[in-house]
Structures are given as C-alpha cells and as structure tokens.
C-alpha cells in the first residue's frame, strides 16, 4: 500500500512512529497509515535495519508485503522528541524486535521504548502482544493501568502492571489496547490524546 498523503487535520504537523517487523497484522497497520494521515499526521514505519537500506516484511494473515526504510536505531533523543507518539503494534512485531544478540544489552527497539517512556512528551501506544517489548523493562509499566491480549495477562501481572478489563486503557502518557481488532478504538484514542496534550 502506498503512503497516504497527509492533509490538514487535527494532527497536522505531527509525526507518529510505528514499529514494524514481519508477522504484523495487516488490517491494523493499514488502518493506522490511513487514519492518522487523514488527521494530517506524518506516519513513519521504523524497524531495525540490520545495515540494509530497506527491508520488506510480510504480514501474518495474508503474507502482504510491507517495505520499511527508516531505522529505529537512528532515532536518537533529538529525533525521538520529534514524534508525538510511538506505537508498538500487535502480531509478532514486538517478539521479533525484542531479540538481542548481546544478552547484557537491551534490544535496540526495547531501548527505544525505554527512552520514549523517559519522555512524557512522547505518547506511548502499546496494543495486544506489543507489551512483549516492555518485558525487559517492566518498571516502565509497573503500577500503571494497562490492557493487553488475554494471552499476556500473566506477563503484565508479573511486570507489576494493573490489568484493566477494557478494550482501550489510558494511564497518563500510555495508551494500551486489547487486540489488533480494536485498532480503530486504539487509534481514535491516540488521536484524542495527542489533541488533548497538544503534542
């Protein structure tokens, strides 16, 4: 799917980063790209590039291709501050991105999430299995209200988060969603929170 050009809207001039990897949930990613662009936001898909100029991933349901050209490792603190929101989507994206070859260091995507949590100006959106990416940094969700896929209920409780049985949960600068099928509610909440925060 070609990028949807942004137009003037409530998110005009804002940027949203969405993490990407293989086994993504195609309807979710397609929805975000269109919905956020409808509100005027620039939507950037970012991933670990492994030295490549571009990587084409395949979706989980239909094996649809998704080409990414932006490196999450290029998002230093200055560039990270340019984003109003960082989204960890559903599917196997978080599981793939939490891989680290050096067991003494956080995976680059997990470190990016850690740095985003250190900045209240960046809205964090984590949906469904996306909570896996925070498993190595449980302190970022400890004591916070979250929802996740039912399969991760034990994980979030072990991380010290407070599970709330709702489709979308907002706790300050953190928005969580139950499953990829709730992406429309999740995206609507992200939009509303960005407008409310004036980020």
CATH topology: Rossmann fold
Whole-number tally of structural domains: 1
Main β sheet profile: 7 strands, mixed
Number of strands: 11
CATH superfamily: Class I glutamine amidotransferase (GATase) domain
Give average pLDDT, whole number: 95
The helix content, as a percent range, equals 25-40%
Radius of gyration: 15 Å
Number of helices: 6
Oligomer: single chain
List the uncertain runs.
Answer: none
Measure the end-to-end span: 28 Å
User: Helix- and strand-based class?
Assistant: alpha/beta
The CATH architecture classification is 3-Layer(aba) Sandwich
CATH class term: Alpha Beta
Keywords:
199 residues; alpha/beta; Rossmann fold; 7-stranded mixed beta sheet; two-stranded antiparallel ribbon; 27% helix; globular
In brief, what are we looking at here?
The chain is of the alpha/beta class. It has helices at 26-38, 77-80, 93-97, 108-117, 153-158, 183-197; strands at 15-19, 42-47, 55-58, 65-68, 70-71, 85-88, 123-127, 145-146, 162-163, 168-171, 174-177.
């Amino acid at each position: 799917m070609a990028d949807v050009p942004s137009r003037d809207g409530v998110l005009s001039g804002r940027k949203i980063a969405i993490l990407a990897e293989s086994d993504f949930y195609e309807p979710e990613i397609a929805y975000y790209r269109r919905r956020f662009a409808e509100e005027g936001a620039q939507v950037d898909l970012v991933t670990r590039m492994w030295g490549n100029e571009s990587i084409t991933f395949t979706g989980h349901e239909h094996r649809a291709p998704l080409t990414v050209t932006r490196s999450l490792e290029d998002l230093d603190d200055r560039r990270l501050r340019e984003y109003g929101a960082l989204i960890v989507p559903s599917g196997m994206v978080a599981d793939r991105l939490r891989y680290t070859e050096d067991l003494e260091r956080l995976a680059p995507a997990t470190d990016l999430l850690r740095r985003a949590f250190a900045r209240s100006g960046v809205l964090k959106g984590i949906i469904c299995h996306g909570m896996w990416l925070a498993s190595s940094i449980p302190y970022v969700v400890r004591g916070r209200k979250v929802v996740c896929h039912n399969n991760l209920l034990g994980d979030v409780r072990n991380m010290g988060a407070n599970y709330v049985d709702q489709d979308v949960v907002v706790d300050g600068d953190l928005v969580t969603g139950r499953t990829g099928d709730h992406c429309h509610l999740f995206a609507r909440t992200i939009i509303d929170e960005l407008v409310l925060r004036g980020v």
